[in-house]
C-alpha cells in the first residue's frame, strides 16, 4: 500500500502552477502603469494577439513588482 500512495500523487505534481515575479527598478513616477507580457513562442513575440499572459500594475516610484500567477512550468 505504501507504494501506491506516491503513485497516486504523481498527476498532481505535473499540474503544478508557478509564479513569475518581475521587479522594475528606477521607476521615476507614481503615474502610469507597468505592464509585463509573457509569450509561449518566439514567433508571436511583440504581437498583442499572441500574448500568453499579461499583467499591469500601477507604477510605484522607486521600484514596482509585477507578479504573473499560475504559469505552467517551463
Descriptive notes:
The structure is a single chain. It contains one helix and four strands. Helices cover 15% and strands 43% of the residues. It is mainly beta. The relative contact order is 0.30. It has one domain. The strands form two sheets. A two-stranded antiparallel ribbon has the order 1-4.
> CA-to-CA gap between the ends?
33 Å
Helix content: 10-25%
SS-derived structural category: mainly beta
Domain count, please report it. Answer: 1
- DSSP strand content: 35-45%
Give the overall form.
globular
Helix and strand pattern: HEEEE
> What's the alpha carbon Rg, rounded to whole Å?
18 Å
Mean pLDDT: 86
Strand order of the largest sheet: 1-4
Poorly predicted sequence stretches spanning 5 or more consecutive residues: none
Count every beta strand, where a strand is a DSSP E run of 2 or more residues.
4
Number of continuous helical runs: 1
Structure summary:
With 74 residues, the protein is mainly beta. It has one helix spanning 4-14; strands spanning 18-27, 33-38, 53-58, 62-71. The two termini are 33 Å apart.
Short descriptors:
43% strand, 74 residues, two-stranded antiparallel sheet, 15% helix, mainly beta
Topology of this structure?
Layout: H1 4-14, E1 18-27, E2 33-38, E3 53-58, E4 62-71
Antiparallel strand pairs: 1-4, 2-3
Amino acid at each position: 500500500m505504501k507504494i501506491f500512495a506516491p503513485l497516486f500523487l504523481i498527476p498532481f505534481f505535473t499540474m503544478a502552477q508557478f509564479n513569475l515575479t518581475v521587479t522594475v527598478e528606477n521607476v521615476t513616477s507614481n503615474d502610469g502603469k507597468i505592464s509585463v507580457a509573457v509569450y509561449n513562442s518566439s514567433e508571436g513575440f511583440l504581437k498583442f494577439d499572441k500574448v500568453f499572459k499579461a499583467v499591469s500594475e500601477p507604477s510605484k516610484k522607486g521600484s514596482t513588482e509585477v507578479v504573473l500567477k499560475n504559469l505552467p512550468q517551463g
